Every structure is written in structure tokens, then in C-alpha cells.
Amino acid sequence: MLVLxxxxxxxxxxxxxxxxxxxxxRVEAYGLRRDGDGYPIxxxxxxxxxxxxxxxxxxxxxxxxLAQLPGSLxxxxxxxxxxxxxxxxxxxxxxxSFRDTAxxxxxxxxxxxxxxxRGVNAIGTAIAEQTxxxxxGPAHYELRNAxxxxxxxxxxDPHGQLVAVLDVTGPMDRxxxxxxxxxxxxxxxxxxxxxxxxYARAGFRNLGAIEHLVTRASAPTILVEPRGPVAIHNExxxxxxxxxxxxxxxxxxxxxxxDTLARMAREGGEPRFETRDGSxxxxxxxxxDEGEHPFGIIVxxxxxxxxPRAPVKALEPVKNEDLPTPFAEIFATDDAVVQSKxxxxxxxxxxxxxxxxxxxxxxxxxxxxxxxxASECAGGPFIAVxxxxxxxxxxxxxxxxxxxxxxxxxxxxxxxGLLGAANGGTLFLDEIAEMPAPLQASLLRALDDGSxxxxxxxxxxxxxxxxxxxxxxxxxTMVEQGDFRSDLFFRxxxxxxRIAPLRNRTDRLxxxxxxxEKHHPPAPKLARSAVAYLEEHSWPGNVRELRNALAYAxxxxxxxxxxxxxxxxxxxxxxxxxxxxxxxxxxxxxxxVRASGGNISDAARKLGVARDTLYxxxxxx
Length: 621
Description:
It comes from Pendulispora rubella. The chain is α+β, with helices and mostly antiparallel strands. It is 41% helix and 15% strand. The longest helix is centred in the N-terminal third of the chain and has 24 residues, at 178-201. Mean pLDDT is 80; it is low at 1-12, 306-321 and 571-579.
């Protein structure tokens, strides 16, 4: 195995070899030898104490937790450690069975594991490349470390400075990719805590106060931080500046890094910012920590002489004939759904795994079948399975198949499983978030090289399939909580399509008419009372509920128009006044906010909507 620099991994062995060669070339410039037998001299006891004190001063409230992390991560066969930003190990916990090996390769407190001292290794390379790193077996530069696996993740403070590294190392016979997720999510958790503490010290009780300030602004407003994409933005900024993109960083947006923008904020002045929507005067409000150092900037874009709005290509109405036939069959005039169709049609031409984010009943399988039919896999099979509808004890044999006699009741010929059945085609895994962690690892392996093993079979098999996953759950949060593998998440998340729920669509009436024309020709007319209800109902069952309600109404209406009373009784309450869609949405929003203790972000996640949408729901009368 070679170096893995990212949970998504580098495609192809040739690319991995080039990455490894590049790293080796970088460290060879330090004059190191792969077969060297000496070790660099670490800092003195006094210097080591100073380094620990420096880290403690950075973390303050979080230092105890940071010091405890290695102990909570280590087990009897591996060691877990924290190093400082230079690669010097400050705290370490190791299991008894691994202690001799750890001592032999100098995995000890005070040892220097920077690349300059030890060549390519997870700690030093994570520092050099400032990203989570896995160094497996012979991908270590030093030959004496070829029997080790190492996972390391850098920890950055709210100013974007690397301040520590968290690492797990062990012998190859104990290698488990699960350590990667633990290390990465633990580092992310520490970073979130540091960020929250910094905001609190600056006078903000929590990020909700900043979110409120930004999202309620009428003009385009964003919050940028030293690392990562725009942290918070309002709807006006999403439309006019971000063009709907989720990951836009400071440099992409302004053509300068955060430090340069912070200097401009300190110097005052209001620079101009040009977009296709016109000219803006930019106001920069820096957020300062106790030492008067900026850790965030609220950017307000005040319109000047606004030019006529240029059409946004992605939001232009699209005729069905402008898309591949399979997508033209999905009715949509709502802008968000049209965008989803366009994006899905583009990704359909690739071999990328895809992820559909949508509630139950929105038409995920319809999208998946359209992607398959518009892809180069169209001549192969389309295999669909709902991971949430199959017992976890049976899902492994269902997906990966089983050898003859693998378990009581197994068929004499065994089974190739759904992966085998999908060879040459598309495998659609609905509710993929319900898949148990061990099966996630097996699925990732199959995505990497096409190989998988049937239950009870030692011989690997191969299947060339295109994966489409779907879920309504927040996979990002599940990754942070350790409920979903980060490596699988990053493989799927690259080609991500969101499908709007019916309650958020502006084409509900048109969709109802299209369903009537398709399934109940000649389509009956919709009376005014039915139209009013179709527009106001919240449709918790989405398109599936609408389709079934229309079928029910057609049966009752006969040859006449569909009236409101023809709709199913479960939709029209006879015992009390019918609540409008607006009332239902506002009530759901208020309940979610109460259940979240006033945390808007948490409430929005529970409802599966954006913060901006939740604010609109709360304001509806």
C-alpha cells in the first residue's frame, strides 16, 4: 500500500506512485537516508517543558481535553499522540504490546518527527502539507518504519495557524482504516471547540448571534474566516455572489488571502467590488480576539449603480428537449429542481459515484434511473436496494453475495449479490446512511478497485459498476459523530445533487397536472377548491403523497372535475379547520427551534432546510 493523502484517495496506482515519489524527492533534499540508523537529538527537558507550556497557553480550556485524547484513542496494540506544530511529540499513550516497537523507532515524548528529521511520515507530512495524511507501510521514507501504519490530522486555531497534530500509529497487522475517521473527527472536534471559545471571548455567546446578524441583513452579507469556505452567508449573497456554490473561499471570491483582507479591514476605507450583478461598496467589519487579532471578517456588500441583472444561466427556464431524454421525463419548472436536473445530466456522463440528498418520496429513484439511462452504463443493469429496508444482518449477503454453505439456509450455488448483478451497470443504494460501518468499508474497497468478497468466500471477485447513493440524513454531521465513514463520504460527496422537497417547490400545481396527464388520461380538471388545497398543503410525503392523493381523487371524481372533498380524508381534517401550508410550516419551525433550545442551525438541520429557509418559515403569518 502507498501513501494516502486524503480520505477520498488518489485515483489510480500511477498517481499514487507519483505522489509518493514527489514526497520522497522533497525529503531527500534534507540529506536523509532511507536506511539510516541514527536519530536526531530532541529538545532538552527544559525546552520540552516550554513547548508543552506554549501549547497549553494556546488551548487553555481545551488543553485538558487535548491531553486526554491520546489516552482515549490508544489501545493495547497502537499508540496515539499529540505533537506540536514542529513535529515534536508532547504527549503519548501506547499499549503494552506495542511499547517495545514504539521505543525502538523512537515514538517517544520529546522525539522530533518532522519531515526534516524523519522523512515522509504521517506527523511530519501532515505538517508539511497541512492536511490529514495516512502513511501506510513502505510509504514511510525510513525503511525501519515500513512495518507501521500512521494516521495524522493537523489541528488549526481560529486564525488558521497549525498548532498541533493528532496521530495514531500501530503495527501493520493491526491496521484498520477506522483509525483515520477517529483521528480526523477528533481533530475537527477540537478545532470547533477552539472556534467557539474564541467567539465567546470576543463577546458573542455563540455563533448563533453571528448567524442572526449575517442572515437577517438585507444586502449581501458574508462571514469569512482564515481557513475554509465562506462560513456564513445570507440569501442575497448566495444569489448574487456565490452563485449557489457551497465552497467558495476568500481567495476565490476576492482574489486575495484572509490576511490581506484583514489588513484592508484595519486600514478602513470601502473598496469597490464588481460582479455581473453590478457594483458594490464593500464594508469590512473584523472580529478581533483578546489580542486584537482578526479571526473573522463580516463583509457587507452595499449596491452602488446596479447594472441590469444578467441572466443566470443555471436558473434559466429549461425546456425538456434541452436535456437528455431520460431527464426530460422528470417534470420540473421550479428553478431549484431544474438546476438539479441540469447538474445530474452533466454528472451522468462521468463515472463518478454520486450522492442524491432528498427526503423520502421526492423522486430519488427517478433521478437515479435517469442518470443511469443517460450514462455510458445505460446498456447494463440498473440495480436498486433500500439499505434501510433490509435488516443489517442480511444486508451484507444481499449486497456482496455468499458462498455455497456460508450460513444455514444458504443456496447450494451461492449468490453473487447485488454488486455482482450490477456489473457493467449502476448500483443504486437508497438510504445509504443506514449501512453499517463494516459494510461501508467493504463498499469503499469495491469502489476503489472493483474487488469484493462474498460472505464465507476467500476468493475475491470483481464488479465494474457505477454507484449512486441517496439519503435524507446529514452525512456531514454523521461523519463528525463517527456514524458514517469519512472516506466513503468524501468519495460520494464530490458529485452531490440536492432534490427539493415538494413543500419548497413553486411548480406544485404544474406537477399535479403532469401527473394527471401521465397516469390518468384524459386528465380531469382541477376545480378551484382543489387547486387552493394543492398549493397550501405541506406535503410531508412529497411527490409520492401527491401522486397517491390524485389517484384517490380521480377514483372519487369520476368524469367530473376534482374538487377539494375528493382528496383523501387523511389530508382534509373534517373535525377541525384545515391548517394552511403556511401554518404547518411555521408550527414545524417553531417546534424545531424550541426542541433545539433556540439554536437556529441545529433546528434547521433537524428540519432538513437551510437557515435562511427556517427564518422565512418563522416569519410567515
